[in-house]
Design brief:
Blueprint lengths: L1 H18 L1 H7 L4 E5 L4 E3 L7 E7 L2 E6 L5 E7 L4 E3 L13 E4 L3 E7 H10 L1 H27 L2 H16 E3 L4 E3 L5 H8 L3 H13 L3 E3 L4 E3 L1 H5 L2
Antiparallel strand pairs: 1-8, 2-7, 3-6, 3-8, 4-5, 4-7, 9-10, 10-12, 11-12
Helix pairs in contact: 5-6, 6-7
């Protein structure tokens, strides 16, 4: 199961830091463990930042504000995810997206040079980072193919099932997402308008494929998979 595999990888990374964090901080002086509350920003679009952020627990939203002032949700990431310096344009010191906590988030922050040194010295950890980045790259490519080739309804199904894999908690319906997403945020992830996605979600609910409130989405995964 992808959910179990993701948890195992995340736990391995957390175990590495927790094993002897004080010694790591002696070897890599910039490492800090930081906790932020719900809705707080790890960094904002336009900030000058060359650090790396390693999510220990919690969920974050990556978003971008266009020149017209429209905010678009790019991705939802959880524990084990690595974000920051290397995801941005190397030619510019300003980051191109904002990262906001969707619930309380605990993370490790370290400077670019310490991150490079850590990856050089800890090859097993470096491999986990490579896998995480590669998996995210494939998700982006798969999303692009889906947006280009599939109708909106199929894109909504694929997005909800992907979110359930990563952030789902078993419930009577199938999976309950442990994050609160607005219909606009779901629409951004799908690559469609909010009104179209709202109509599709209402249709899915009337057909018993999902249920949702202001705080939670519950997904009947069996109904989706059998479509």
């Amino acid at each position: 199961m992808p959910l179990i595999e993701n948890n195992l990888k995340s736990n391995l990374i957390n175990a590495f830091f927790e094993c002897d964090l004080k010694q790591l901080q002696k070897d890599y002086h910039s490492i800090k463990e930081i906790n932020v509350s719900n809705k707080a920003f790890l960094y904002r679009q336009g900030d000058r930042c060359s650090d790396v952020f390693w999510i220990k627990s919690g969920i974050v939203k990556l978003s971008h504000i266009t020149e017209e002032g429209i905010e678009t949700t790019l991705a939802i990431l959880g524990k084990g995810s690595v974000i920051g310096w290397f995801w941005n344009n190397a030619a510019s010191p300003e980051v191109e997206e904002s990262v906001q906590a969707l619930k309380e988030v605990n993370f490790y922050r370290l400077a670019k040079n310490d991150f490079k040194a850590l990856m050089s010295h800890q090859t097993e950890l470096a491999w986990h980072v490579f896998e995480e980045i590669n998996a995210r790259k494939h998700k982006v490519e798969r999303k692009l193919r889906t947006v280009i080739t599939q109708p909106v309804e199929i894109r909504v199904i694929a997005t909800l099932l992907e979110l359930a894999e990563v952030f789902g908690i078993k419930c009577t319906h199938g999976y309950a997402l442990e994050i609160h997403l607005t219909q606009q945020e779901v629409a951004d992830l799908v690559g469609a308008s909010r009104s179209v996605v709202s109509t599709i979600l209402n249709d899915f609910r009337s057909r018993g494929m999902l249920d949702y409130t202001r705080e939670q989405i519950c997904i009947n995964d069996a109904a989706f998979i059998n479509l």
